[in-house]
C-alpha cells in the first residue's frame, strides 16, 4: 500500500488539448484539398493527384515513427539531469525516452508548414469549361455574419442535413464508407500493437521497434496508393471499374493477411504467469 499513490501530473490534459487543436487544423486539408483537385484538375489527372495527396499523408507517420525512434534513445529528462549519472540503457525496461521532444519538433514543423497558407488568395477563379455540371454552394456569407445573425445558421444546417441525407442514401458510397471503417480499424489496431509485440517477442527496444515500423510498414502503403492512382489514370477507370479494382485488391490483401494465423511466436516463460513458480 505504501507504493500506491495517485498520479500528480496533468500533462495528459495538454496532450489532449494539443491533439484536439491539431485535429481541427488538419481535418479541412483532406476534404477541401480533394475537392479543390476535383474542381480544378483534368478529370483523367484527378486519381494521380489524389494518390499523391494520400501518399504524402502516409509519409508523415513514417517520419513520425523515425523521429519517435530518435527521441526514444534520449533520456526523458535530457537537459535537466547529468546524463553521465544515468546507469540504465534504452534496452532496460525501466528506460523512459524523451517522448515530449517529438511533440515540440512536430508542433514547430506544423506551425512553419502552415505559414504559406496565409499567403493564398481569398478566392480562386474556377475555369468555366471545367466541371460545369457540378453544383456548388457558396457558404462564405455564413462564416462571419452567423456570429451576429443567428437566423443564418438555420439555412446552413438545413442544407447540411439535405447533403448528408443524399450522401448516406447513396448505396455505393455507404458501402465504401463501411469498408473504409473496417479497413482502417484493423490497420490502426495492427499498427498500434505491433511495436509492443516486437518489444515483447523479439526483445527489441522501443526505439528499434519504432524505427523498424516506420521503415517497413508505412512506405509500402504509400507506394500502393500512388501505384493505384497511376493505374486508374492509365486505364481511365469509371466508377464501376474503380469499384471492381478496389474489390480485387482488397480481396487479395485479405487473403495474404490470413497467412498471419500460421505465423507467430511462443509466449515467453514467465514464472507465475505462463508457468508455475516451481
Automatic annotation (TrEMBL):
Instruction: Please name the Pfam families in this protein's record.
Output: OATP
Membrane keyword on record? yes
Q: Where are the transmembrane segments?
A: 46-67, 97-120, 172-191, 211-232, 244-263
InterPro entries assigned: MFS_trans_sf (IPR036259), OATP (IPR004156)
- Molecular function as annotated in GO: bile acid transmembrane transporter activity; sodium-independent organic anion transmembrane transporter activity
Question: Listed GO cellular component terms?
Answer: basolateral plasma membrane
Query: Please, one GO biological process term?
Result: sodium-independent organic anion transport
Key word Amino-acid biosynthesis present in the record?
no
The protein's location, in the record's own words, is: Cell membrane; Membrane
Tell me how this protein sits in the membrane. Answer: Multi-pass membrane protein
Keywords attached to this entry: Disulfide bond, Ion transport, Membrane, Transmembrane, Transmembrane helix, Transport
Q: Which family does it belong to?
A: Belongs to the organo anion transporter (TC 2.A.60) family.
Q: Tell me which PANTHER family the record gives.
A: ORGANIC ANION TRANSPORTER, SOLUTE CARRIER ORGANIC ANION TRANSPORTER FAMILY MEMBER 1B3
Q: What is this protein called?
A: Solute carrier organic anion transporter family member
The gene designation is Slco1c1_1
Amino acid at each position: 500500500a505504501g507504493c500506491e499513490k495517485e498520479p500528480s501530473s496533468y500533462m495528459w490534459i495538454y496532450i489532449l488539448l494539443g491533439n484536439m487543436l491539431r485535429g481541427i487544423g488538419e481535418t479541412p486539408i483532406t476534404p477541401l484539398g480533394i475537392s479543390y483537385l476535383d474542381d480544378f484538375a483534368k478529370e483523367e489527372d484527378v486519381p494521380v493527384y489524389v494518390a499523391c495527396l494520400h501518399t504524402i499523408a502516409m509519409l508523415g507517420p513514417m517520419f513520425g515513427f523515425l523521429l519517435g525512434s530518435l527521441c526514444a534513445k534520449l533520456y526523458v529528462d535530457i537537459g535537466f539531469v547529468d546524463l553521465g549519472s544515468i546507469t540504465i540503457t534504452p534496452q532496460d525496461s525501466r528506460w523512459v525516452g524523451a517522448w515530449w521532444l517529438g511533440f515540440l519538433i512536430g508542433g514547430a514543423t506544423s506551425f512553419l508548414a502552415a505559414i504559406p497558407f496565409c499567403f493564398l488568395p481569398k478566392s480562386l477563379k474556377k475555369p468555366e469549361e471545367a466541371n460545369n455540371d457540378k453544383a456548388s454552394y457558396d457558404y462564405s456569407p455564413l462564416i462571419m455574419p452567423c456570429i451576429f445573425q443567428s437566423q443564418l445558421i438555420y439555412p446552413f444546417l438545413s442544407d447540411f442535413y439535405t447533403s448528408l441525407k443524399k450522401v448516406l442514401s447513396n448505396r455505393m458510397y455507404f458501402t465504401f464508407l463501411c469498408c473504409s471503417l473496417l479497413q482502417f480499424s484493423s490497420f490502426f489496431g495492427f499498427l498500434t500493437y505491433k511495436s509492443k509485440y516486437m518489444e515483447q517477442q523479439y526483445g527489441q527496444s522501443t526505439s528499434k521497434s519504432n524505427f523498424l515500423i516506420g521503415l517497413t510498414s508505412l512506405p509500402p502503403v504509400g507506394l500502393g496508393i500512388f501505384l493505384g492512382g497511376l493505374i486508374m489514370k492509365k486505364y481511365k477507370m469509371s466508377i464501376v471499374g474503380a469499384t471492381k479494382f478496389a474489390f480485387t485488391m482488397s480481396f487479395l490483401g485479405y487473403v495474404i493477411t490470413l497467412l498471419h494465423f500460421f505465423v507467430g511466436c511462443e509466449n515467453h516463460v514467465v514464472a507465475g504467469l505462463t508457468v508455475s513458480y516451481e
